[in-house]
Design a protein that fits this description.
Blueprint: H1 3-29, E1 45-51, H2 56-61, E2 72-79, E3 85-88, E4 100-103, H3 108-140
Antiparallel strand pairs: 1-2, 3-4
Helix pairs in contact: 1-3
């Protein structure tokens, strides 16, 4: 694997982990939103990642190596299908006839853990990126 591919893979990890941090932050920010643009309470969002395949020509040129892909990317953002929370709050403006309000299916503890996890992924990919950059710099300085 060349330097360019290594940097590209690390960059794709950095980019996808940043997108996941944004999604988890949005989930936390909307954890009490009972009204959304789509109507009804906010639904938790999750990112679906996929491998970025290498281009055919690159695969052909590097047939002796065993590269499986060229990084990751967010393929789509889906809504979490888990049930919404139902809380008894008869004075709430969005309460139904029985006094229950449907709240988002966001669990604070899960989102905080996700934020920590995605930030660690970001740091790991940034470290790998900087390591490859350092190797390139050191290689260019060899006399």
């Amino acid at each position: 694997m060349g330097f360019r591919e290594a940097i590209g893979i690390s960059y794709s990890g950095i980019k996808s982990s940043l997108e996941q941090v944004e999604i988890a932050s949005s989930n936390l920010a909307n954890s009490l939103s009972t009204r959304s643009v789509d109507g009804g309470p906010y639904r938790r969002r999750v990112a679906v990642l996929e491998e970025v395949p290498l281009q055919f020509q690159k695969e052909l040129d590097k047939a002796t190596t065993r590269l499986s892909g060229g990084g990751v990317r967010v393929r789509e953002i889906q809504y979490d299908p888990s049930p919404l929370q139902r809380v008894y709050q008869p004075g709430h403006p969005d309460a139904d006839g029985e006094g229950f309000v449907q709240l988002p299916n966001v669990r604070h503890s899960e989102e905080v853990v996700n934020l920590l996890y995605y930030s660690r992924l970001y740091e790991a990919n940034l470290t790998a990126y900087n390591s490859v950059k350092g190797m390139v710099r050191d290689t260019l300085q060899i006399q």
